[in-house]
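Troubleshooting entry. Yesterday's outputs looked truncated, so today I'm pasting the complete records for two proteins to confirm everything comes through intact. If either block looks cut off, that's the bug. Protein one:
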Amino acid sequence: MLLAGACLGAGPVAAQSLPTAVAALPVSARRAYYQAAFEQRALQLYTKLGLGSTGLSLPVFREGLVGYYNLRPKGQKTSGSSVLTLIDFARSSQQKRLWVIDVERAKVLFHTLVAHGKASGGDVPVAFSNRDGSEMSSLGFYRTAPTTYTGKHGLSLKIQGLDPGFNSNAESRAVVVHGAEYVCDDFVKTHGRLGRSQGCPALPVAETAAIVKAIRGGSIVYLHGPAGAGYRSQWLNLDTAAASYASLNPTGADARANGGE
C-alpha cells in the first residue's frame, strides 16, 4: 500500500499484515495513518469520478465523505447504505448542483438540478433556517427514510435531519425529497433561476422516481451551503471518519481496487 512505508517507517508491508502493524502504533501515529489513508481515498475517488469537471469542488466532496463515513454503521458494509447524495447550495440554481454517488461502487448515479427554499434567496440561497414556517432550506446531514410514499407532489421521500439546530426540525416542517415542475431548464430560461420550494430539495419531475428509489433506505444526504452560513457539525470530525473508513477497509483493498497502490 502506498502509505505503508511512509507511516510505518519500515518499507513495504504485506497487505494482510497491515491491520496488526497499524494497531501496534502509538495512538497519534495510528490517527495520522488513518487520516492519510482517508485523504488518499477521497482524492482518488474524486479524480476517478471526474467530479471536478462537473462543478463539484474537492472540499465539498470531502466534507460529504467525512459525514458519510461517520454516519455509516460502524465496521459494516450493509447493502443500500453506500449511497451519498451531495447538494451544493453555494452554487447557482441554474447549475446542476445535486450529485448522487455510490461510494463503494465508485459511480455517479445522478447529477441534476435541485431547488432551494423560496425564503433562502433568489438564484443562489443566502439564508438558511431550521425554524417551522421559515420556508428556507436547512443545511447539514440527513438520513433517508426506509420507504417512499405518494403525497401531493407524487412519489416522495422523507429525510431525517441529523444536525441539531440546523436541520433537526425537518420532519415537523415536512421537508422531503419530491419532484416539482418548476425544477427544469425551461423555467431557468424564462426566469433566470429555478423555481423554489418551501424548504424541500425539489427535483426534476422526470428524474424524481429513479433518484428517490436509489437513495431510500437509510442513505446519507448532505446539503452544503456558502462559507458564511455558519454551519457546524459533529459529523465533520475527521478522526472518527478516518477510523470508520479504516474499519471498513482494514487492508486498503478498497483503495487499491479504485486506483491506489
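Protein two, checking that the full record survives here as well:
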Amino acid sequence: MVVLLKIGAVILVLLYLIRKKWDLGLVLFLDSILTAVLFKLKIRDFGTNVLGALIAGETLTLVGVLILVLYLGHFLQAGGHFRRMVEALKNLVRDPRLILGIPSAFIGLLPMMAGAMMGAPIVDEAARRWKLSPAWKTFFNYWFRHIWEYSWPLYMNLILAAAIFHIPIKRICFTQFPFTVLAAAAGLVVLYRNVPYLPPEERSGGSVKDVISVFWSIWPIVLTILLIFVFKLNMLLALAISSVLSLIFTTLSFQERLKAVLKSLSPKIILLTASLMVFKRILEVSGALDSVVRVFPPHGVTAYLLLFAAPFFVALLTGVNQAFVAIAFPLLLPIIGKGEPDMILLMFAYVSGFCGILLSPAHLCLALTADYFNAELRDVYKILIWPVCAIFTAALAVLIITRIF
C-alpha cells in the first residue's frame, strides 16, 4: 500500500504541474527528484544516474533523431510538399476527412520515437478547411499514428515480447491484429462524428499521377523508410542521409534552408527529451518500477489484476513502449507462460500496457504533438479517453469471455 501511495504521488504531481502549464521537461525532471526522494535514492547515485542518462548513447541518438525529424518536417512544409500531398489525396479519396488520418497512419509504419512529428504538419495543412481546434488536430495525428503498434512486426515492443515469451513474432501479430483494425475503426468513428462532411473540392477523379505525387511530395520520408527496411540502416543514419539530400536537391533559397535547420534545433524539445530519459533512468534505478509490479502476488484473482496493473502503470509512468514490455513482461512469465504462452493473457497484458502508453503525459509523441499544435493536454485527453477505453474494454471482454467464464 505504501508503494502505491508513493507511485500515486509521483503521478499526481506530474499531472498537477502539467495542468498548471509548467514546461513538461521541467516537470519530468522535478518528478525525477521526487521519485528519488520517495524511494530513498542516495544523492550521489541520483547525480551519477542523471549524468549517465544525459550522456547515454540512447539519449544522444534520440535527440539526434528528433532534431532530424523536426528538420524534415520544417523542410517539407517550407517547400510546399505537404500542401501538394494533401492536394493529391483530395483527388484519390472521396471523403476529404480521411486526409486527416491517412498520412499519419502511413507514417506510423515507420517505427520511431516521436514519429508523430512527421505527420503533424500534414494534418495541420489538411485541417485548414475545417478550422479544427489544436486539440482535435493533435488527436487525429496522434491516434492514427499509433494504430499499427498492436501488430506491426517492426515495432521493438513486439520484438521484445516475442523474445521474452519465446514465440514467433508473427503469432503475436496475428493474435493482436484485430486491435489494429479496432483502433482504426475507433479513430474513424471519432473522426466522422466530430468533423462535418464537406463536399470534395474540385478533383480530377484520381490517377496514377496523383499516387506518384503523394509519394514524391514526401520523398525524404519514403527514402528514410527504404533505407531502414530495405538497406537495414539505423534510424539516425537513414534520417541523416535523407536530410542531407533534401538540402542538396531543393529549390529553397539558402535563407529558407537555414531557417528550417534552425527551427529544428529546439531547446524546449531537447530539454523534454533529456528529462524523459532521466525520469526513465531514475524510475528504474530507484526500484520504483519493480515495486509496482511486485505489489500483487502472481496467482489467483490478483494475477488478472497484475496483468493489467504491471504494464499499465509502467507505461503510464515512462511513456516508453519498450519499457512496459521489458520491465513488466518478465515478471508476468509465471502467469502467461513461456514457449507456449496463453495468447489471450499476453494480448490483455500488451493492450493494457499500450493503453497506458497512449494516456501517458510522458509519451513523446503526445507531448511533442500537443506542443506543435499548441494544444492543452487536458483538452486532448477529453477526446482521447473514449477510444482508449473502447480498446481496453474490447481486450477485457475477450479476457472475461475466454478465460474467466
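Both blocks look complete. Sanity check on protein two: Residues 2-199+208-404 form one domain.
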